[in-house]
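Homework help board

Subject: predicted structure for assignment chain

Our instructor gave us this sequence and asked us to write out the predicted structure in token form, then describe one feature. I got the tokens but I'm not sure how to describe them. Can anyone check?
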Amino acid sequence: MPEPRTLPTDSPLRSSQRQTGRRFLQRRRQVIDAAVQLFAEKGYDGTSLLDIADAVGLLKGSLYYYARSKEDLLFAIVEEFYAEGLASAAELRDSAGTPTEKLRRSLERAAHYMLTHRAQVTIYFHDAKALSAERQALLAPQRSTFGRTLAELIKAGQQTGEFRPDVEARIASVALVGSINWLAMQDPADAPTAARRRRFVDDYCDLLLKSVTHERPH
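My token output:
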């Protein structure tokens, strides 16, 4: 039996396959982005696949090439929300710096994400519950990763003497995550420009850090 033939990396067919793959990913990105806007504006239940198809200039039948169902799109959006939390947790574990420096960077990243991805955050808090039990179970292990990593960092800061020893690390992490999540409800008028947003995040994270450190951070 002849061995399978491997295409050379510079073959026209392989190049065509790569371009087709890129086009598919670009188009799927457009479909997901349209779903983000529509779900945030109209709600998950109030949005139809036809609405999404119209928003990206596709026939409804063609949309199924990029998403088999509306729930597929919701799952992709919620997955991306969790991916940001996982990336932030990985940065906490792997980056250099003192516990105070690492905690501040992490809080700033999370706060900035909340203020600049309002549509995704709105969908997560209002519509993620519409996912099937099976898909909820797939996401469950990711749900508390960021909070657990924060708790570990707070314990490390207590060992170095940077953080208050009278603070229970798990409770502190819950309070910090809750405070960051609250920003989903914050009035956009409070930080309408990038410069105002940076100042808002800086002041907000100062207050959060003060809750676990001995003195006001600089």
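Reply (TA_rk): Your tokens look well-formed. For the description, you could write something like this. Residues 12-42 form the longest helix (31 residues). That's the kind of observation they're looking for.
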